[in-house]
Amino acid sequence: MRNFEAESRREQPALPPIKITEDESRRLSSLANSSMDLFPRVAHFLAREMERATVTDENNLRGVIRMGSKVTYRDDETGASREVVLVYPHEANIELNRISVLTPVGAALIGLSPGQRIDFETPHRRTRGLTVLAVSE
Questions:
Q1: Number of neighbouring beta carbons within 10 Å of residue 82
Q2: What 3-state class would DSSP assign to 99?
Q3: Distances in Å between the alpha carbon of 54 and those of 6, 110, 127?
Q4: Could you tell me where the DSSP H helices lie in 35-119?
Q5: Which residues are within 8 A (CB) of 61 and not within 5 positions of it... i.e. 6 or more apart?
Q6: Per-residue model confidence as pLDDT tens digits over 76-127
Q7: pTM, whole model, 2 decimals?
Q8: Cα–Cα distance, 113 to 29 (Å, whole number)
Q9: Which of the two ends of the chain, N or C, has the fewest CB atoms closer than 10 A to its terminal CB?
């Protein structure tokens, strides 16, 4: 008999390590929990990211994507680069390149640093990858 759970774990790429402050972890975990009914997939993804994140203090987060960070990332499928600011849902404005952490891309970006790559699931259940190119406050 085959072990399907072990096989599915092997097929998924390893997730990059991420860091976050205790305050942001608490706030984002609460946001994920309160959004489970409206946005179940991305809320579960964000909750999982908060569970696996290393909680650290502000001094250890230079170059790490946090709420309010300006981020340049590359879509690994198209090769296109994009610059966005990661914000809470009420601050999101796609015309101003302000993306919510409660989107698949936003949840994937939180806690990453330049050079790190992550795969995430789109609303259409496709797996996409992105690589962080630059982060600024």
A1: 15
A2: strand
A3: 25, 12, 24
A4: 40-52, 104-109
A5: 19, 20, 21
A6: 999 999 999 999 999 999 999 999 999 999 999 999 999 999 999 888 889 9
A7: 0.86
A8: 20
A9: N
